[in-house]
Amino acid sequence: MTPLSPSASMATKTFLPLSLFLLLLPISSLSSTLNIWPKPTSISWPIPAAIPLSPFFSIEPDFSSHRYLHIAITRYTRLILSERHRPIIPPVVNLSSSFLCSLQLSVSDLSAPLQSGVDESYDLYISSSGAALTAATPWGAMRGLETFSQLAWGHQPVVPIGLRIFDKPLFTHRGLLLDTSRNFYSVRSILRTIRAMSYNKMNVFHWHITDSQSFPIVLPSEPELAARGSYGSGMNYSIRDVQRIIRYALSCGVRVVPEIDMPGHTASWAEAYPEIVTCANRFWAPAGKPSLAAEPGTGELNPLHPKTYQVVRNVLHDLSTLFPDQYLHAGADEVNTACWEADPGVTRFISAGGTHDQLLEKFINLTHPYITYTLNRTVVYWEDVLLGPYVKVRPASLPTESTILQTWNYRAKNTKRIVQAGYRAIVSSSNFYYLDCGQGGWLGNDSRYDVQEAEPSDSLFNDPGGDGGSWCAPYKSWQRIYDYDILHNLTEEEAKRVLGGEVALWSEQADEMVLDAKLWPRTSAAAEVLWSGNRDSEGKKRYAEANDRLNEWRYRMVRRGIRAEPIQPLWCVLHPGMCNLEQ
Ligand SMILES: *[C@@H]1O[C@H](CO)[C@@H](O)[C@H](O)[C@H]1NC(C)=O
Ligand SMILES: *[C@@H]1O[C@H](CO)[C@@H](O)[C@H](O)[C@H]1NC(C)=O
Ligand SMILES: *[C@@H]1O[C@H](CO)[C@@H](O)[C@H](O)[C@H]1NC(C)=O
Ligand SMILES: *[C@@H]1O[C@H](CO)[C@@H](O)[C@H](O)[C@H]1NC(C)=O
Ligand SMILES: *[C@@H]1O[C@H](CO)[C@@H](O)[C@H](O)[C@H]1NC(C)=O
Ligand SMILES: *[C@@H]1O[C@H](CO)[C@@H](O)[C@H](O)[C@H]1NC(C)=O
Questions:
Q1: From atom 11 of ligand 4, which residue's Cα is the shortest distance away?
Q2: Which of 93, 315, 435, 460 has the fewest CB atoms within 10 Å, counting from its CB?
Q3: How far is the CA of 362 from the centre of ligand 3 (A)?
Q4: Domain Beta-hexosaminidase eukaryotic type N-terminal: where (predicted)?
């Protein structure tokens, strides 16, 4: 596939017909609304006036150099001058007769690293005599540049004047998880995804690199894992690929948090080290026996085998040298007793009075302190370690809030349990934030689909309201995502321990061919809520207003080379309000 380049030529062709529609617009649908996504915390534009950008428009920093911000400045200058986005409903403005020649940019703390909790606020002011963007850090400056780029519209780009924006995020963690194990994604498609994240002011790319199905990352101390466990034919990430992704992400203000899922979800490790993996390459769901895994691709690291820890430490060590981020995600979800018991050593351990929980605890004991003390990283685990078996999630010497648990099961009370126990939480509830749900099942030879008329007994599977074979059905529409309150039912104290959220694309039925449409604009819905919430200044949910803005935003993202899905027929965009269910 050839991903669309952001260059304008192709998009111009695609959208030429829109200008014809514009001629037919009734006067009543003309407006003076600025479409910015995610919506800024505070925006004031009392008089609808605008100023054309000089063809020589430039961004003028008041500092000499910042490695990543300068890349962003170059990218945004090019984008602002070349994008020429024509809003479907363009703002009606009085145009100033002069030109805007530059945007003055100042940053107070150039040395602030991109890390959890970094100040991302910015202040933007545009008048007929000039424009100024000030930010505390380079990362806040990037958010402000993004906003400025969205303010420009038209073939001869103009920007609003008399405009003031003050903006800062509600949550420090605004992430997207991409699973590159079930199906492979080229580096190019990952870079495009990170670029689209920065358009939406998201700041964490959670890279679920490996799983049972493939091990695509080439690690210096354990190269055999990818050599044997990747899908082959170049479907791997070299050290240079990883460095390229991290550097590009920094220029977009996006952290890259790596995850190597363990001890479950590790069948791919067995290609290199069969001795450390239990139940590898068995049929995952033997008839009349407990399932060995959540899906085909069985295998779990054996917590009783000493070699396991040698390999695991090499893997974790390499991760910490490759990825600068403070967070290291060590998985720990969905560990399955039946799979471990396929190993005779484990069976002996159990018959001698050992428990499943002790096996997991052993694994946690031997990895958590290593990650924390030796590698100096903050451990992130899936919630399962706390909510499933009874295990000590962390060494007693560590304060609880030093460990972060990511919640994914559908129950709202899971977040509550995590923060009540004192952990910090990242919310990825599958009921709202899983982008892969609702596509039906992907296991083959499934006779349940061979039904011409649904019987009451099939209702869960075949009825329109049923799950159709998708465990987390239905499909999470942008509205479902937008209206989700990740702090639901938490007290103010509890809410402080929620860092933010992540939408997740698990890739059993996705690869780079369909990536953009699976992610966008649904991920934008979460991005806005995590940036500035989903309520207006009176505290009412603002989904109706967001609908119109998201329509426009989708078209602008397409213009930028992101093949986002439409959320409505174009007719609805051209007839504001007419497609609302509740009038
Ligand atoms: C543009 O300026 C004219 C003259 O000052 C004024 O009458 C008109 O209302 C303005 N239009 C808008 C959209 O502000
Ligand atoms: C990774 O892919 C490249 C081709 O792009 C190949 O030359 C290399 O051997 C692969 N590395 C591993 C460890 O599989
Ligand atoms: C794990 O470590 C804790 C001390 O932090 C200890 O109390 C516990 O027994 C260990 N568990 C296992 C299964 O080794
Ligand atoms: C551990 O990481 C923190 C945060 O990145 C850093 O401030 C500290 O200096 C590191 N400690 C060591 C011993 O490297
Ligand atoms: C909300 O929290 C209370 C305890 O504070 C609990 O009893 C209730 O079940 C929770 N509701 C939901 C929907 O989680
Ligand atoms: C498909 O499932 C049927 C049982 O419904 C089984 O008899 C058949 O062998 C399966 N076919 C394949 C190719 O696995």
A1: 376
A2: 460
A3: 7
A4: 36-151
